Amino acid sequence: MPGRTVHVLLVEDNVIEHEAVRRAFTRERIGNPLAAATDGIEALALLRGTGGVEALPRPYLILLDLNMPRMNGLEFLTELRADPDLKDSIVFVLTTSRSDEDRVASYNLNVAGYIVKSDVGPGFVRLIGLLDHYWRVVEFP
Question: What does the alpha-carbon distance between residue 125 and residue 138 come to, in Å, rounded to a whole number?
């Protein structure tokens, strides 16, 4: 996919987590554009280009927290997969939830990966580096 910039959408309600991702991008020298939404409703508006917001250009990759107000991650995934224009979106869940129910529900909604934040710990920068390699190698729809 030479010459195509992969945009990253972080869907996370915790400001500290937002900043951690931004710092990891900087530390790993990842220049991909990073957009943020604090819940599923904002994320859908960014993806659809509604509510006076310009749509996030394709290709993009979504980093999704599950525990958020208004529309949580699983509700967002359900809506995303039901939308014919968005159903092929690549989503990685990045959450604190170790619940088997959440993990199974996420994979049933076709996520590319389920990552528990506490398992990454100090290796968070390495995780962002791994994702960087992923979007450089994988062909996006």
Answer: 20
Length reported for the chain = 141
What the block records as the tokens of 43 is 């994320």
Q: 25 is in which domain, residue-wise?
A: 7-69+78-98+105-119
67, 97 contact by CB (below 8 A): yes
Task: Render pLDDT for 57-97 as a digit per residue (tens, 0 to 9).
Answer: 998 999 999 999 999 999 999 999 999 999 999 999 988 88
Whether 34 and 62 have beta carbons less than 8 Å apart is answered as no
Pick from 58, 6, 56, 66: nearest CA to 35: 56
Nearest 5 degrees, angle CA 141-CA 101-CA 42?
A: 50
**How much is the pTM?**
0.86
Q: 77: helix, coil or strand?
A: helix
Asked if 122 and 113 touch (Cβ cutoff 8 Å), the reply is no
Joined together, the tokens standing for residue 81 give 């997969």
Tell me the CATH number at 53.
3.40.50.2300
Cis, peptide link before residue 59, omega less than 30° from 0? yes
